[in-house]
Structures are given as structure tokens and as C-alpha cells.
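[Solved] Which block belongs to which protein?

Original post:
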Amino acid sequence: MSDDWRRSDSRGYQQSADNPTPDHSSQDRWTQGPDVAAYKDEAATVGAAGDDAETLRERQRLAQVEMMDRWIGGVLTEQRRTRRWKLFFRFMTLFLILAFVATVVYNAFWATTGDASTLQRHLGIVDVNGVIASDAPANAERIIQGLNRAWESDNVEAVVLHIDSPGGSPVQSQRIYAEIMRLREQGDKPILAVIEDIGASGAYYIASAADEIIASPASLVGSIGVIYAGFGFQDAISQIGVERRVLTAGENKAFLDPFQPLDEEAQVFWQSVLTQTHQQFMDDVRAGRGDRLSDQPDIFSGLIWSGEQALELGLVDQLASLEEVARDQVGEASWEDYTPRLDPFDRLTRRFTQVAAEVLGFKAPNSPLRYQAQ
């Protein structure tokens, strides 16, 4: 036979012809480890001189029972220790989850911004961020609520409209403009408009009601105009062989249907609507800005200007940042946000409703007219 021939004994240990010693490299530490061997040695030495064979066997049996008790006790101790750590980490995880949920719920429903009890004099900030629309965060109801909260706080030195918006709905913009003018006429404290990246179209409409407009040199300001944009698909629909079926009561009810040609009479009518809305825009800007506006006719052409250009045209009063405005008004960069918090559940429900309406084809814009930079 070969020299490296191996055989396995009844316990699974491998032996070779040259080395009959069992291979204990894979021994079980619970039944064959050094601790167990020590107990076996201890059991083997149990006894006294003169003990007969029966007494010696009984002593060895008792020693083995004691050894087994120790082993079981160690296993149970280890299991209890493991269970304690598992329970500890489970409780810690549950505590962190509950703390997170409690923080979210508190911030959503009970925490307020712009605490009127703040003793330090500060600016009262109201954010106008994003597109101005009834179904957007920058809607008239929310902004007007923030304006009144800041206005009524005794520790607000000046109310600041913090604007970063391309504009949006004419109606929403007009509502905010009217409220600012109402507060401005009371004269208790200044209302300032601070434009960040962009304050155009409907956002500038709002800003023009403020006592002063402040912008950065690179801000985009202006775009005083009204826009309607659509498409005409009447040729495309005829080429693919689709018949458009629209039933109306009123001969002009579907005059903006993109699958029908826009005739000259409808175009003239729609242009008159745009012109009248633009005139409202210009009149309100003139009422808010007064003699500070330049006589340059391009101001109302829909062009958009940089902050430096807007200063020369009288569209803004100074070039500065929010921090500089705060230091000028209260001596340090101190302000509080008075913009009402958004209800996360309401936002989720509203967004779901909008998506569902668009998928089902029921979505219609609030108004086809926009005070919005393109």
C-alpha cells in the first residue's frame, strides 16, 4: 500500500499509516477542547487510597456530572448574555425609530417658524420660492399668511420677501401684490423684497409692491410681460388618420383647441386678452415703483435684466445680499423665517391627485396665461 494511505476511525478522525495519531484539527470545542480535557483529568484523579472499584466509579461519575453541570451552566450564561444584547439593540432600534417619527410629526404639525416671542430684533423672512401657483408651495394663501405673521410680530424690524422665482399665475401674483400694498399703506414697518437668483415676471410683480427692492449684481430681474404658449396639431392628426370629435355649446368654446386651426378672429380676440393683462401688470408696477422707474420703453417689453442693469433702469433700489440688508436694518445678520410650514400629508395627497388627473387626462391648467420668464 501507499505510504500516504489514510483511514478513518469510528469518530471520523483520520489516521495515516506513518502517523496513527488522530487528527484533532477539527475537534469540537464543547466535547473535546482543552477545558473538557482538564475536567476529564480532574475526574480521572478523583478518589482516595483504599477505595474499592465501585466507590471509585461512583466518584468518577459524580465528577463527570459536576463537569457536565459546569459546561451546561457556561452555555446557559452565554445564551443569557446573547439574549440581553439582542434585547438591548432591539430596544435601541425601536427608540431611534420612535424618536425619528416623533420629530417628523412635531415639525410637521406643532413646530412653528418665526417665533413671535423672540426677544432679539430681527428680519421677518417670507419665502417666495419656485413657480407661483395655487397648487405650488409659492401660493398666495401661504405667502399672505407669512406676511401677516411677520407684520404682527413686535420684534420684526422689517418684513422681507425672499424671492427666487421665475413667476407664474397672474391671479396669485395679484393677490400677493394687493396684500403687500395694503400693509405698506399702514406704514408700521418697511417691507423689502430681496431677489436671489431670479425675480422675474410674476415674482417681480410681487416685488414691485415692496418699499424697496434689493438684488445681487448677477440676479435676473424683470420680464414684465404675459405669455400664452400652445401647439397646433391639426396637420399631424389628419396625416395619421385620426378624427377629432369635440362637442361644445358656444361657438368659440373650443377656440384654443390644439387640434383645430386658430383663425384670425380668435387670434385677435386672444391677443386682446393678453394685452389687457399686460396693461394691468404695467399699471401695478408703476403704482408700486413710482418715479423710480426709468422712461426706457424696453422695461415693459418682456426683457429680463441683470441686477446691475435693473438698478440703472430703476427696477431695483440697491445691490446687496440678505446678510447686508440684515446688518443695515438690525445691526447684525439676524432673521427668522415666518413662512408657514408645508403639511407633508397634504402635499402628498395633492401631488397624488395631480398625477392621477394627468394620467386620466382630466388635468387642466388653472389659467393658460402666465407671468413667467421662459
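(Second protein starts here: sequence line, then its C-alpha cells.)
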Amino acid sequence: MHSPIERKQPSFSLFLFLCITITFKIAIAFNIAIAFNVSTLTFGESYSPLFSKFNIQLSPDDKTVRLLLNRFSGSGIISSDYYNYGFFSASIKMPSRYTAGIVVAFYTSNVDTFEYNHDELDIEFLGNVQGKAWRFQTNVYGNGSVSRGREERYRMWFDPSKDSHRYSILWTPKNIIFYVDEIPIREVIRNEAMRGDYPSKPMSVYATIWDASSWATNGGKKKVDYRYQPFIAEFKDLVLQGCVVDPVDQIPSSNCSDSNAALMAADFATVSAEARKSMRLFRQRYMYYSYCYDTLRYPVPPPECLIVPSEREMFKSSGGLKGKIRFGGSNRRRRRAKRRSDAAIAASGR
């Protein structure tokens, strides 16, 4: 990683990692209890199998679904309905042990209905090499603009295979927010100059696990190792909150006006000052690629990009991090900066 653990201080590094993990668990548990006022659904109320039903396992109470990947196939589920904007969430526990090359995805899309001009909102978990932090990315596509993807990539500050954590996508006519637990990590505010690049057509919600050995981990250098199969991603606390529509209806449904107004009035539809502080700290600490700073790909930043000078200084023209600029100075100073950053994110997330 960008700040490798020094061999001379393994005990201190382990202690620091445990302290940070415990701090975040306390904050996350508090947040889940009081923050988002949403109702959860059973699998039968919300989803159906998408592919490889033989690799999908349901709990006896129908509240938890396990998606398996083995050498025969991955697996996936799809929401039973299409939504015209909404809030979509699930508590997910990632596969454990060696998971290089594996992608677990929670996302919205309408590619099945709009093959050539589909919309999509992605949260994709990119596996890990044992002992290293997991990485994940978010992406936004609108109107088939696959050549204009809006990727951001991040490192996890916890091990997502140890416990379930809540991941959420808010999608309204005005903004898109990605959440990890109740901490916002990214907001896209609709800009009229985006035109059709802002997702606006009804979408389904998907959850999948699959073999992405060709690209997911270290650019494809690390492959899926099926000696550790089956790889299991667990989904529970399923939330699908939005206006259900017919995806092929060419006339926007007036029935969604009240639903969308209620959606935009919800507590999770606005990033408060404290939550924005959490988001800023998260991005400074854990974001390692942003399309907004990729001037090789976009000489002129896309219209929705809000260029933050402190962020811009961190990135090369390729949109990737500039070496160790994130924690300049001595190792001791870098460790102090990390402790302060993690503690501040946890505190402001409450």
C-alpha cells in the first residue's frame, strides 16, 4: 500500500490497526441504530435470482442471501422491480481469506432494457491480497456514456470480511450519494451541463459476485485462486425505497412526484456539515484515484466535478496519487496523521 507497515514495528502497527477498527465499529454501531429511518425487506419481497440459482443460498427466515463463486460460476440477484429514483442499501459481508481477482458488486442499472443508452450506479469491491487493505470503487454512467465513466477508487479502513457493513446508494433528480455505513464518501450534484450523463431512466438493483481475474486486483496480476472456494458474499438488511415504475413507459409517471419529494426530504438525502467533514476526511485519507483529477483523460474536468485544491495537490495528471504526498514527513508524523484522521472520521460520522 501507499504507507507500508514497517517490519521493525509489527506490534505497534497491529495495535494501531485494532484501535482504529474498534473506534470505527463503535461509531458504526451507533449510526446504524439511529441514523437512517428505513425499513428492511426479505429476499422474497425484494429480489429474485439473476443467474446461477444453484450458487444462491437463502437463510431460513429469508432475510439473508449468500452469493457464491466457485470454479463453475459466480452468482447474482436482481430487484423484482424497477425504480424511478430511490435509496438502495444492504449490509454486506465480503468473502474471507484470499480473495484476489474477485469482484463483489452492489449497483443499479437498466442495461437489460436500454442496451445502448443505459444508466448505472456502481459500488464494486475489488478483492484483496491477504494482509493488504481491500479496495473498492464507485462509478456513475448515464445514457450509455461508458466512455465517460466517472470512477473513484478507495482503500477500506476496515476488513469487510470480518463483519457486515452497510453500503448505500441514494439517487434523486438532484443528487447521488454513496454511503459506507452512515458515512457519505461521495456526492454527485446534478449539473445541467451533464445532460444525459446524469442517470435518469428507471433502474433495477443488482448484487453479484464474479471472477474478474483479468483486471480487478493489481491490474490483473493477482488471479482468483480456486483452492479457497467457495467464495461467499453475504447480503442482509435489504432496503429498496423508491417509486416502482414500468421501465418501458415513455411518459414519466406523475405518480412518482410525491415519492420523490419524500425521498429528497429524507435525512440521508442531504449531507450535513458534520457528515461533509467526514466525507472530506475520508477522501483525503482513502481515495487513491479520481476521474476529476485525471487531466490526461479529461483535460477539462467534467461539469459536475468540484475541484478541491487540497485534493488536487494529492494527485498526478493521471488521477492517481502522488507517491507519499498524502502523509509527507517522517514515519512517526505519518502515523500521528493517520490516527488523527481516523479518529476524526469516526467522531464526525456519529
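Accepted answer:
You had them paired correctly. Confirming on the second one: Confidence is low (pLDDT under 50) at residues 1-13, 19-34, 325-346.
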